[in-house]
Amino acid sequence: MQTRCLIGGEWTDARAGGTLPVTNPATDAEVARVPSMGGSETFDAIGAAWNASAAWKSRPAADRARFVRRLSELMLRDADRLARLMTLEQGKPLAEARGEIAYAASFLDWAAEEGRRLGGEIIPASAPNKRILVLRQPIGVVAIITPWNFPAAMITRKLGPALAAGCTAVIKPAEETPLSALALGELAIEAGLPAGVVNIVTGPPAEIGETLLADARVRKLSFTGSTDVGRVLMRGASQHLLRLSMELGGHAPFIVFDDADLEHAVSAALACKFRNAGQTCICANRFLVQAGIYEDFLGRLAQAVGTLRVGDGLAEGTTVGPLINDEAVHKVEAHVEDAQSKGGTVMVGGRRVRLEGLADRFYAPTIIEGMTREMRLFREETFGPVAPVMAFEDEAQAIELANDSEFGLASYFFTKDASRLIRVAEALEYGIVGANDGAPSTAQAPFGGMKHSGFGREGGHFVMDEYTEVKYVSWGL
Ligand code: SIN
After folding, report:
1. How many CB atoms lie within 10 A of CB 373?
2. Is 422 exposed, middle or buried (0-12, 13-18, 19+ CB in 10 A)?
């Protein structure tokens, strides 16, 4: 297990020798300690990325792509080891962790291909003695700040395109899950990436973040995390007018129309809501179900939720792991209590699950019936395994309820009516729409939000725009 940081190709401890514990959320056992770095080490990491930048960007795109693809292959080679490490530090079931490693590798693989196709343009000029050239050039040193819910995929989703475009990077993984990031750093070295192209610093976020934002050599920040932290980072980014990609909170509506294939809608709901114990930005947070099938859908959903198994992510058969920390459990409890105090009924779950020998951090998959607009569940991202449900009468009301949110990341709806399919997809104010699909994430599609869910797109060919500058050359003959 790698427990030191990567700066300029060297495995490095914090200057003052400080370390931070990484604990298993399922057991509270200390898994490892990692360096508690601050401003000076971050400054060094930026310097290393800056020094490596000129040589890296001048390599042919196909050459850079080979390194990125090799990193993807190494992740897949070590998938079992990486998945176990992820479950130890994050808690998600092992099968999900394996899925995340494959998902993470797919971003590298995709970006390697996109990097090879990153051409410019020649635009017809308006004068015979002129030519207009458009170049796409790497933006420079990129700061990558990532969350704990997807410790590998949220890094590679940014790192892959950054490297393929010719950028170098300083990565700051979440304090809760640095080990997956450091393991990725080891593989980056094995893949032959030159020293300084990928740097990783661990430690408390404030000082590292401030140093990244204050240094004019950093040209771009790509952040996935909460809307509140996103706002703070945006303010700091104004110092040097950093280019930003912000993948922030979500609060996805999940609409089921009378004419939906209910069996399909229920299995999509289960996957979409309870993946990672509901700790994903795109998971369904508000179930809106048309009155005609309300009871039927609820009954089927309750039955499906009954098949979920709460436990240690490393235990065979676990489908819902622990929440990441005590604060997360308190938030879920507060949302459920608030719903009950406002007339909501707990249909399934609604309590912690106490498991012998394990931490008190497991929450039962929960269905709350009778959600109203007044409830916190309707307004705030719960980030836990709670499915609140409310009935609606018609399409217009469903769209109005769905769009009644400051967030705009993912949304879902289920119908067999082809005209409604396009109508509703167009009306939803969300960056991602799962139309009869509860699992839209994939490397080749644009992922990102609107409103308070942020801006920028990761995935597809769109992501390359996030790491490149467009330069116009007016060429007089
Ligand atoms: C997230 O929680 O934002 C990531 C979810 C995904 O990539 O599917």
Report:
1. 11
2. exposed
Per the CB < 8 A criterion, the answer to whether 169 and 157 are in contact is no
Terminal CA-to-CA distance of the chain, rounded, Å?
59
The residue contributing the CA closest to ligand 1 atom 3 is 281
Tokens of 434: 């799962």
* Residue located nearest, by CA, to atom 6 of ligand 1: 441
Q: Percent of the chain beyond pLDDT 70? A: 100
CA 6, 2, 198: angle at the middle one, nearest 5? 25
Ligand 1 nearest-atom number relative to CA 224 = 3
In sign, the C-alpha dihedral spanning 77, 187, 313, 255 is negative
Q: What is the pLDDT of residues 126-146, one digit of tens each?
A: 999 999 999 999 999 999 999
Average pLDDT for 49-53: 98
Q: Which of 402, 409, 413, 411 is CA-nearest to residue 436?
A: 413
**73-126 pLDDT, tens digit each:** 999 999 999 999 999 999 999 999 999 999 999 999 999 999 999 999 999 999
- State how far Cα 167 lies from the chain centre: 21
The one-letter code for the residue type at 475 is W
Measured from the CB, is residue 282 less than 6 Å from ligand 1? yes
Is 113 catalytic? The answer is: no
Is 176 a residue of the active site? no
pTM for the structure as a whole = 0.97
Mutation pick for ligand 1 pocket among 324, 447, 457, 458 (CB with most ligand atoms within 8 Å): 447
DSSP state of 193: P
Partners of residue 122 on adjacent β-strands: 133
Query: What span, in angstroms and rounded, lies between the C-alpha atoms of 27 and 88?
Result: 9
pLDDT band at 414 (very low <50, low <70, confident <90, very high): very high
pLDDT per residue over 287-311, tens digit each? 999 999 999 999 999 999 999 999 9
SS3 320: strand
